[in-house]
Amino acid sequence: MEDKLQDKLIKAAINARKNAYVPYSEFAVGAAVLTEEGKIYGGCNIENISYSMTNCAERTAIFKAVSNEEDTKIRAIAIVADTKHPCVPCGACRQVMIEFGDRDLEVIMANLAGDTLIKELDELFWGSVNEEILG
């Protein structure tokens, strides 16, 4: 992915982070996905007093894309938080990413200091539950 598009995705994630609803953890995360159609959808984490009902920023962004586009395919995702190192996605989010992206989906992990780490999804989530395993 070209640097300009990567920067645009990170900025969209930073912008989405501003809407995070995090009264319990105070850990705001923003994410932005790029679809095959070239559209960008942002999402933030949304907490609930019952922590099990919390939704991560990555899944919020992916679900927004899925609810707005027919046959959604995710090309890339950027994740940003105010952390010491680039923010990595949780296992649940990785499973959702594999559902709507390919193994080579570009995962751009960043922090507010500008540090980035870029990996393909398969590097982060080998052995995921997918059609190859179930089929």
Characterise the protein shown here:
The protein is of the alpha+beta class. It has one domain: Cytidine Deaminase, domain 2 (3-Layer(aba) Sandwich), CATH 3.40.140.10. It has 5 helices and 5 strands; from the N terminus they run αββαβαββαα. Helix 2 (57-68) packs parallel to helix 3 (91-100).
Short description, anyone?
The protein has 135 residues and is α+β, with helices and mostly antiparallel strands.
Strand content: 25-35%
Helix/strand structural class: alpha+beta
The CATH topology annotation reads as Cytidine Deaminase, domain 2
Strand order of the largest sheet: 2-1-3-4-5
The CATH homologous superfamily is named: Cytidine Deaminase, domain 2
- Which residues form runs of ≥5 with pLDDT under 50? none
CATH architecture tag: 3-Layer(aba) Sandwich
Shape: globular
Work out the helix count: 5
Helix and strand sequence:
HEEHEHEEHH
- What is the CA-CA span between the terminal residues? 31 Å
What's the story with the biggest beta sheet?
5 strands, mixed
Number of domains: 1
Mean pLDDT: 92
GO molecular function: cytidine deaminase activity; identical protein binding; zinc ion binding
GO cellular component, one term: cytosol
Keywords: Hydrolase, Metal-binding, Zinc
Protein name: Cytidine deaminase
Primary descriptors:
single chain; 135 residues; alpha+beta; 27% strand; globular
Q: How are the secondary structure elements laid out?
A:
Blueprint: H1 3-17, E1 29-35, E2 40-44, H2 57-68, E3 74-81, H3 91-100, E4 101-111, E5 116-120, H4 121-124, H5 131-134
Parallel strand pairs: 3-4
Antiparallel strand pairs: 1-2, 1-3, 4-5
GO molecular function, one term: identical protein binding
Keywords: Hydrolase, Metal-binding, Zinc
EC number: 3.5.4.5
